[in-house]
Request: fold
Amino acid sequence: MLWWAVLSGTNEPCQEPAIVSFSLRVLIAAGLVGGMVISSGCGNGGKAPPADSAKSQSTAQAAGPAPAGDRSAPPKKFQPVQLGGESAAEDAPAGPAGAAAPRAAISNEQQARAVLAALQPFQVMLGQWRWLTKKSFGDFPKTGEDLNWIWDFKSKLNQPALVFHSEKHPYFHSGRLTYLPDADQFELATESPEGGVRRFQGTWAPGGELTETVEGKKVERSFKLDLKQVEPAEGEQWRVVMNLQENNRYLIILTRKPAAGKTFATLDTVSQQRLGTSFAAVGIDNPGPKCIISGGLGSMQVTYKGKSYPVCCSGCAAAFNDDPERWLAKLAKDEAAKKKTDE
Reply:
């Protein structure tokens, strides 16, 4: 997975929690994520079609606890480093010095790595959530506890995604969140309870890129993703804002514009509260083990030939069980690449 190196910082004590904000643009940098495998997959794949574009952001790792006497670690500057995996250039045809490899030469595996790198900020959303509408349906708002996010590596081998499903949600029966490098945008494909499909594309809202607030060993993550409807292109248009406010709470803010209208008006705000307290992101507050498929926090285990391996969700467990030899071969390849890089 994508890890981060601390470049600089201050040793002065601070009284407020440190804020770490960063942005990574994925330029088909498939070799940046170690431990990613592109065959077989997680989850049911969702019913909505996959996406083709997005702006990449990735997860940062904090530098560790603050010195004694400090309330929190000081702010740090980060940049991505490659700890394993092959780069796109290794498999691409030779070209002029300094020139980027042609897109046609990008392999499925390299694209899958780039997509996974872009989706790392959303790893924190894995798990089951309780949802509550602000809008009333009749005399009361609607609520449920059946919305579950998992990984899907199966529906499209070079296009991993995070997918959710809910039987009771009034707006979305299922959804598929991914990133497609060519258009450099995130995409959310959804299906309504009535079977209608909407496809949204976009990137971080201004100032909404992934931020980590570090206090001691506790890391709170937040972001705001702004997605506009691109399909259907005609008729009523929706807009979706996904606002992660902290590790265990996020909002889905829905606005819509009539077919003949010019402005968007609020449709609803659906709040999501995590059921339980765990989340599948590796950090100083959750040091490991890492999922052998997504690189997230290994919260459960799968077993093959008497040996156990950590995975982060039921989708990754299903992916491993579907073809364990393929995943283990990829794991061995990534570990060898990491060892070579560390030497």
About this structure: The radius of gyration is 20 Å. The first strand starts at residue 3 and ends at 9. The chain has a mean pLDDT of 75. The CA atoms of residues 18 and 74 lie 6 Å apart.
